[in-house]
Structure formats: C-alpha cells, structure tokens
Amino acid sequence: MSAALRGRAWKLLEMVTTPLLPSDYLDLVSPLRAGADLRGRIEAVHPETGDAATIVIRPGRGWRGHRAGQYVRIGVDVDGVRLWRAYSLTSPAKRQDGRVTITVKAIPDGKVSNHLVRRAKPGTLIQLDQATGDFVLPQATPPKVLYLTAGSGITPVMGMLRDTEFDDVVMVHCAPRPQDVIFRNELHDLVADKKLRLTEVHTDTDGMLDISRLDELVPDWAERETWACGPAGLLDAAEEHWSEHGVQQRLHTERFRPSIVVAGDGGEVTFSATGKTVDADGATPLLDIGEEAGVLMPSGCRMGICFGCITPLKAGAVRDLRTGEITEAEPGVLIQTCVSAAAGPCDIEQ
Ligand SMILES: Cc1cc2nc3c(=O)[nH]c(=O)nc-3n(C[C@H](O)[C@H](O)[C@H](O)COP(=O)(O)OP(=O)(O)OC[C@H]3O[C@@H](n4cnc5c(N)ncnc54)[C@H](O)[C@@H]3O)c2cc1C
Fold first, then answer.
1. Is 261 within the bounds of a domain?
2. What is the pLDDT of residues 115-134, one digit of tens each?
3. Does 337 reside within a domain?
4. What's the Rg (C-alpha) of the chain?
C-alpha cells in the first residue's frame, strides 16, 4: 500500500474509532508492537531472597538494548496510580531471548518495591523507558577489577558479572545475613569456577564494613578499577577513602538515593492545578509531599538524575536538598520535585 493510501486509510479509521484513536485499539491487541509507547510485559517473577525478586520482562519492539550496569525507569500501576521508579538491569546485555531482568528488594513501606516483589503477576504490562546511566564497564579491559557492593546495590554489578568476564575480579559484598545475599548461589558458582574471589561481610554479626578493612580484605584495592553500589554511608566512605589515596579516578559509584545534605524551614505547599494545600517540612521532597496528598506527580529516578519529575514553580521558593541552593519562582522556572523541598510557602503547578 502506498504511503498516501495508508494515510487516508488511517484517517478513515480515526473517524470510525473516535473518541479513541486506532492506536488505542491496537494497544489492546498488540501493546508491545513497534511504534507504540515503549512497554514491557512481565513474564516471570523469581524470588531471590525473603524480600527480593527478579522480574523477567519482555520489552516491546522499540527497546534499544542496554549496557551492563545501566538502569531502566519503569512505570507500574499500584492501586490505580502509575508510579515510576528506576531499577538496574541484571540480565547480560547479550541475553539471547531478548528478555531483560531487574531485581528488586522490597523496602519497608516501599510502594513499588513491595508491589513488584510480592504482588506482580506474569502477564502484567508495565511502562518502560530506554536504558540509561553511565555506571558501565569501559571499552578497554581493566587488568584488575573490584566490585564493592551492599544490599540491593549488588544488582548493577550482577549485570556486569553476567555480561563480561575479567581475568582478575574481586568482590566485597555486605548483607545482614548469608540468606540476605541476593544471587548468593550464582556468586558461589563463579567462585567455584575461579571466575571470582568473594568476601561476604555479614553485617548482623561482623558489623558495618569499615572501609579501612579493605587493606586486609583486598590488599591491592588501590590498583583495581572499582565499581561500588550500596547505601550512602558506604559510598561516601569509599569516595573519601579513594580520594585520600589519590586514586579517585579508579572508583565508579552508583547511588539509588540522592545524598540529602541540607534541610531548612518548610512551608505551606499549594498544588494549584489539583487545588490542594498541605504543610511541608523543609526536608521532605515535594514529590513525596504531593504523592502523599494524592496529587498525580510526574516522577522518574527520584534522585535528581533523570529530570522525569520537573514541574513549574508558580510562586514561592524551594530548596535543593543536595546543595541547599534556593530557587525562587519566576516565569518559566522548572524544579526537580524529587530533590527539592519547600523553603517557605510555595505553589507547584500540579
Ligand atoms: C539508578 C537507580 C537504580 C536502582 N536500582 C535498583 C535495583 O536494582 N533494585 C532495587 O531494589 N532498587 C533499585 N533502585 C531503587 C528504586 O528505584 C526505588 O527507590 C526502591 O525500589 C524504593 O521504591 P518504593 O516505591 O518501594 O519506595 P517508596 O514508596 O518510594 O519509599 C518508601 C520509603 O522508603 C524510603 N526509600 C526510598 N527509596 C529507598 C531506597 N532505595 N533505600 C532505602 N529507603 C528508600 C523513602 O524515603 C520512603 O520513606 C534504584 C534507584 C536508582 C536511582
């Protein structure tokens, strides 16, 4: 069929299907087709530990693939509300069947993580973004590698371990107890195959990892190209330690939450489009304040990197929780609600 004829046929279809669009009907029968908004279908949910599970997703035709270590933003409907979160891809980039996996740890009161770990069912459709992130392996092969991880911070590194083999790889991983170590069997298989040297730190019995213990656990740590992912305390300590030894260029970190350093006085927040006004403290991100108040807020990584949450600031002032910087309302001013808190009364156009 010629393009002109196809165009006329599509116009005719639009008239027939009004008020919906033909694509809305196509979404019902072929939601993963090329040209549709990028979606994925959950095909399986595999429990990993008591509170973590791997979700196998078949991405739609528009999926452009990923590099090991990258993450994907997914949109999940929880109790009728679409919520967006970021998850690292744990499948190797070259997985043959075209599926990808994410591995999610349920956190206390976590809306999306508990939904995915405990309630997600095969067959469910989710929204997907393209993979992104620069926590990836370099093109040139490093002679020695160290992976330093804790808790769910093991996920991007597992994507790397499954994707690329190196001659000399050491991993130090922290989790409360042996049974909390995600991917433990697979890690031990790699150790048995001499593809990995692994130290598990069980924080319930050993206490939190004191970063200076690396001298004893991995004596040549400073010579190793290092990828670290875990809670802020571990990453802050690692960044300081690597800097003190002048090898900070060898350390690559991935954070799941922003480092909140500054809080101040809050104020009354108005969400003018929704017509809601609530009191906010000066430490809670406006994204959380809005969601808590039942306002439909755009969101993304929730840590100030993806700009999926930007919203006009109509009046008042907000504080960037990472830097303390104050932004005042002016025409055209956009704020990242996931890392901004009220700095006095303000009006967010949502
Ligand atoms: C680049 C990137 C990659 C990520 N990869 C993974 C991954 O592979 N696996 C994974 O499980 N998670 C990952 N996360 C974290 C994930 O995006 C969510 O933040 C996490 O699942 C919590 O969402 P929730 O809706 O369950 O919690 P929410 O309902 O948003 O929050 C519930 C409570 O927990 C607190 N909270 C929010 N996030 C965290 C957190 N990460 N740790 C501790 N407390 C938190 C909130 O302040 C709130 O008090 C990643 C985040 C980023 C930015």
1. no
2. 999 999 999 999 999 999 99
3. yes
4. 23
